[in-house]
Specification:
It is built from eleven helices and ten strands. It is of the alpha/beta class. The chain has one domain: TIM Barrel (Alpha-Beta Barrel), CATH 3.20.20.100. Strands 3-4-5-6-7-8-9-10 form an eight-stranded parallel β-sheet. Strand 8 (162-166), helix 6 (174-182) and strand 9 form a beta-alpha-beta unit. The longest helix is centred in the middle third of the chain and has 16 residues, at 117-132. The protein is globular. The chain starts with 6 loop residues before the first strand and ends in a 6-residue tail after the last helix.
Amino acid sequence: MPATNSYITLNNGVKMPALGLGVYQSPPEETTGAVVTALQAGYRLIDTAAAYFNEREVGEGVRQSGVNRSEIFIETKLWISDYGYDEALRGFDKGVRKLGVDQVDLLLLHQPLAADFAKTIAAYKAMEQLLAEGRVRAIGVSNQTPAELEELMDRTDVVPAVNQIQVHPYYSQPEWRAANDRHGILTQSWSPIGGSYIYGDSEKNPLEDPVITGIAAKYSKTPAQVILRWHLEHGFSAIPKSVKAHRIAENFEVFGFSLTSDEVARIDALGTGVRGGPDPDSLTLENYGFPIPD
């Protein structure tokens, strides 16, 4: 019997699973199988993006899984090349065609495009229109700073339901999370386990941290399971990625135990403030713009 997910109610009343499968950098030829494995293991949230170039394979996995579409929460993201009002509408149409669905459960702007924030605003207004038409159930953003969130909300009508940001024990982003909390925006964690995104010192891997390995030993859990439980204790949504069946299953076995408040605080204290990956505000159309095919 698959494990049971927990659910989070977004600020517009839509319920989404707390834990999902991420498919960033999942090769298209392995994505369909990973999605099938995840859904059959009990996952009900799949996170993809136009820029991952595997939306089509995600849709195929949804169809092959045998799980009713109404039970599956699909989220995808518009890439900066499709920002602007009309461009975003066309970008959405490309995405749903590839996914093979009529409605997306959550649509995000993938990056803030700080160098041309007017395009970001226009794309968000297009998503508001899609929301009003019922073509999406919720809308949100990704990698938006507290200041960018404020500007976006000043210039649009719908408060984002989600801000998907990099969060893991070594890069916990308390200021960004607090800004999300102030506005009732759910923090969704990408790179939730953290190891793949730490630069420099190879020892800087949360999976090997003695605090986390010690807690894992106490509960007879893996370090990854302890880290994912930490996300859930904070009320975040987390989207760990894997194409390995045993790892996908392992990452979902986090609902049968809980951490104490002291254990959560000890993991909180591990933050280094060091980002893995580029500063989202450094992404421009000139250096990261590329066409999203149909």
